[in-house]
TrEMBL record:
Keywords: Hydrolase, Metal-binding, Nuclease, Nucleus. It comes from the Eukaryota. InterPro entries: HARBI1-like, HARBI1_dom. Residues 176-341 form the DDE Tnp4 domain. Belongs to the HARBI1 family. PANTHER family: PROTEIN ALP1-LIKE ISOFORM X1, PTHR22930. Its cofactor is a divalent metal cation. This is Protein ALP1-like. The keyword Transmembrane helix does not apply. It is found in: Nucleus. One of its GO terms (molecular function) is nuclease activity. One of its GO terms (cellular component) is nucleus.
Amino acid sequence: MWKIRKNIEDEEDLLMLGAGNNKRRFWVRPTLQKRNEKGVDKLIMNLQNDDVGLNGELRSSFKNFLRMSSHDFENLICLVGPAVKKKNTNWRCPISVTERLSLTLRFLATGDSYHSLMYQFRISTQSISLIVPEVCEAIINALSGYIKMPSNEEEWKKVACEYEKIWNFPHCVGAMDGKHVVIESPILSGTEFYNYKGTFSLVLFAVVDASYNFIYASIGCQGRISDSGVFKSTSFQKLMENCSLNLPEKSVLPGRNKLSPYVFVSDDAFPLSPCILKPYSGHQDKGSKNRIFNYRLSRARRVVENVFGIMASIFRVFRKPMLLQPKKVEKVVLACVHLHNYLRKSSSKNTYTPPGAFDSEQLDTGTIERGTWRKDQQSSQSFLSISQIARKSSIEAAEVRDEFSEYFISEQGQVPWQLNYS
């Protein structure tokens, strides 16, 4: 009888020590309980103080940590705070808005694992797995006004004027592209997300303006879907097909007589249509109008390539496969897209994209100076180009492209250096 009683007492001791599954040894680990003493709130304050040196010189400690200035961070707290703030309870104080937002931004900036972030922020991995998707969704909702597709002819014409002024491409209302965001193999997904590059991915489709801002973004297509399938699955394609984009009416290009539509520029991955221009396929003779057209098209389309490159360089969660399920990956990617526009349009945008970040050209020769994001060779490894498949286009679409190619070799449409690159 005594031995039986002793065994029962031993089992109870093991349960109290945490060896059993019914009782926890700690409600919160002792190390994590020191979050209020040594947590991120004080780190943020120290970084803000460190950014102004003894002689008043500005440093970039805060920007290096969260990828934005302290002013943008404080403003983002005001926008996101109401959606992520939690109430106090009789048991314990909640994780603050500052900690939640800092944790999420640090995850986007580095792509560190939840276990690594746990020791840095003194927040359990279980809580982090809930906080990151919640804050990302709050960022998307709070910054939804920063990604706005033009809704009428006047707004589209403003985009076209920028492309003509900056990139010498009239009637262009956006550059479009799609990229694969690499993820880990989703549970029980088979080959659904397996792409032609041999990785698992979700596809991000985007349209950008001449100032490196997103005007449309969609993610969610599985990596195995072809390029045409990705485009057809977007609401953007449906609006274009139904003529619901409210694009401006056709008008003549400068110095030309034929009416031409307003168009989007793309690469070979997309179908040629009256509203979508893509390069001429195959080898083109040096100096020919087709080759000149391809150069001028790639020059305008470089904008979207730079946007993807900058975003992947700043938010390094893209540099490695995301160890999240697809629905959470969608929130993470869209949060980065919204943050890109938010930081590009903020008063301190030079903190996010300093001079030299994007590709630039010398006005007299057209020589390309590579942006600083290209020096980071790993910055775009998470983005894989969509496969290119030849397809037959309509006669009307081919005539539109030919009209643009004729314009680019005309006196009004040519640029002095184009023969050097075509």
